[in-house]
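Reviewers of the previous submission asked for a worked example of the structure-prediction workflow described in the proposal, so we include one complete record here. The input consisted solely of the amino acid sequence. No template or homolog information was supplied to the procedure at any stage.
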Amino acid sequence: MKYLPLSLALAAIPTVACADEAPDTARIIVTGEGLSLPPGTPAYGSVVIDRDRLTNGASGRIESILGDVAGFQQFRRSDSRSANPSAQGATLRALGGNASSRTLVLLDGVPIADPFFGYIPFSALVPDRLSVVRMTRGGGVGAFGAGAVAGIIELASATRDQLPTFAASAFYGSKDATELSASITPDLGGGYVSLSGRWDRGDGFQTTPKDQRVATTAPAAYDGWSTNLRAVAPLSATSEIQFRGTLFHDDRTLRFKGADSMSEGQDASIRFISRGAWQVDALAYIQARNFSNIVISSTSFRKSLDQRNTPSTGLGGKIELRPPVGPDHVLRIGADTRFATGDMYEDAYNANIAANPVTFRRHAGGDQITTGLFAEDDWTLGRLILTGGARADHWSISNGFFRQVSATTGAVTANSFADRSDWQFSGRAGALYRISDAVALRGAGYTGFRLPTLNELYRPFVVFPVTTQANAALNPEKLRGVEAGIDLSPVSGITLSATGFINRLDDAIANVTTGTNTRQRQNVDRITAKGIELTASGRIADFLLSASYAYSHSTVHAPGMAFDGFTPAQSPRHSASATLAWEPKQGPTLSATLRYVSKQYEDDLQAYVLPDALTVDAVARLPLGHGVTLIARGENLFDEKVYTRLGTDGSIDLGTPRTLWIGVRFGR
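From that input alone, the workflow returned the following structure tokens.
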């Protein structure tokens, strides 16, 4: 299973190559894109990040660029160089952090969250490979809508006209960091093939403050690579087939020598697009992932846990049809399915004994499957657009188990958990009314749900000295929300938007403190988030500005619990981002990005406060001719101290300090 996606990639190449023999190729236009957006999409207040921005981030990492949209967050403030991969879940609207993604992240229509943990493999999502990102905050329906309780992030691969035939870049940065990438995109008959690779590594910065460092303290070293093959070929004048295969591997060290984590994956997908009278979007995908992690005691500095192997597999597909129902309607009907299976193998150690013996060996896992039917219609009535959709999902959680064997006595603790299944119905509706070319009003309401991940159900974890227990009885999270907004274009090239929202997440899954240094994943009654989101973008002469601000007042409702009425863990009330760029048509360009996140709480009881942080990034580009550009990048230029974790033992983890890069980029 591990190498099946690679085998599919190799098998698909001759198929794609042969597809260029279509007759009359002058009439065939291959785009490599999906179907066009329905006209009702703006009713849900999406925010778009274009390719120019994607390819000019100071860090070169997609998760940092997604921070341009205020309200986007991961479980912690670290990026994919210094975070534990399993903590990189994506969420929006301050609905609380628990490391799993509450936001549905799609790449070319394929869900990319890890099948076992639910985290996003950000290090494998190279911005240079992307065309555009569209972020929609709030519940979603459509294909794969199950899981979109906090919104949808849609990433689209770069198209042929955006990709040079050959491109390469090389950067050198602080702490002996290097970032190397290359791509080749030849035309192949009526289609094209794009092969790209990236490798980056660094000795890493010290996440531990000076006064807490010991002999075993280690910087957050990282070493990772990814390669991607994408092929697009025409089948007729109105249809095409798209293939994508991705391999990635990522090694990181956090805080102590030996505290190493590894994540890897082999993904493949194939997609059929028809833009004829009956439009069709059909895809199938497979994902093989693995993860390992070693936990080091912060008191004895010996190994306390070795999550040595966590293999998981994801399978899925969808078909969407758009029948010809007249010029005023865009009707989408379809079905999708997702299957996830995974196992966790780990060994616990006695870190208080010099011999550091194994105490327990554990094995846990299970299966999940979600199958949904969906329908959505957009109806255009002059300046008014009405949109609405519904989903019916049947889900099941099965074959769950947890087994622990004592390494000293051989005693076995074995639990098998009852299979569960049910139906869940969700929907959304919205309206967009264009008062004039300069003013549009919109409103929407929606529901949604998310299954607990296999990780939440069956795998306990340790961030020393705190142990968080799994909970096989977790119920799905269910969202209800409404929002209203206004979009303004006062002058050509300037857009302003404001959105007010109320979202309620029932049965929210949270890490609940149950004792000293002990937490458990539990459903709490609900989390309610109320707030406002503001965005602005525009160009005046050679200056470009994009800005975003989000205010989210989130509250946990948990009658009888100590944290009732508190703010959810890892949920800032204020967040903002602004980028100002000077981009003349010729010559050098400059840009600077300011980001702010207010204080947030490490834990459910609000005992540990992560202070607010204000950072400034910058990028300067100097074209040298013949496709060569000299680039200087700076992250956190004023060396702001960004707190990413506060432990119950007083330990602190810090985020990226000032980091400087110099490099060249070539594309022809």
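The chain has one domain: 4-667. We consider this example representative of the routine output the project will generate in years two and three.
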